[in-house]
Amino acid sequence: MAGSRGNRGFDPTVAHPARVYDYWLGGKDNFEADRIAGEATIAAYPPIRASARANRAFLARSVRYLAGEQGISQFLDIGTGLPTASNTHEVAQSVAPDSRIVYVDNDPLVLSHARALLTSSREGVTAYLDADLRDTDRILEQAADTLDFTQPVAIMLLAILHYIPDLDEAQQTVARLTSAVPSGSYLTISHAASDISPEEMAEMQRRLNEHLAEGNHVGRPRGVVAQFFDGLELADPGVVKVTQWRPASRVEAEGLTTLWGGVARKP
Asked: Once rounded to an integer, what is the mean pLDDT over residues 33-43?
């Protein structure tokens, strides 16, 4: 997750959102500081691990929907996180092998792993940018080396906007990204909720922020998350818990999550 501004180099003694997330998912690409932060948040809200898995499942379902049903073959995935199952290019290229994906993150560990592990199909392309979400002009300029911005692009912002605590800044960042892509493009967002298990989430957030370098994680209510899609056409079922966005089964739909999610088309 590109959760802190810029890349200040690699410091394993300070928890980083991408590596804490990796710990929640049961991964091995994390350090003691990340595990301490991960355990502190799990103690406050044990289902956080299930919520992290639900977010990955939402990513896979939304990419499959975009590539398979909407014919999208270009993806800008900002806040990539550490490679795990069902990464964006794997899902997209399984549907459309010529899909082009640009991954963006600001953790050097994420980028080194991504370059080593996230290899494209022969027909498609994957590229990796070292940048922060808020450096939108830089992201768009460099992504244009891989993506054709005259054709539809899916912008993927999963579990990242909640690391921009200033709502105006977060909204402006989304608006800048969506203004750069043509009609027929899509925006996919998942975002930490402040109105799902609010007391536990508030405590989890407090504990997480004690460990992050910038202490900038913030949950938002569903109505505010929905505002990020203003001016776009939300795909059914709208902004819902990520487990309830086109779930594959009733079991999946009833899974625990602390995230709102949605997918919308630029008219």
From this structure: 93
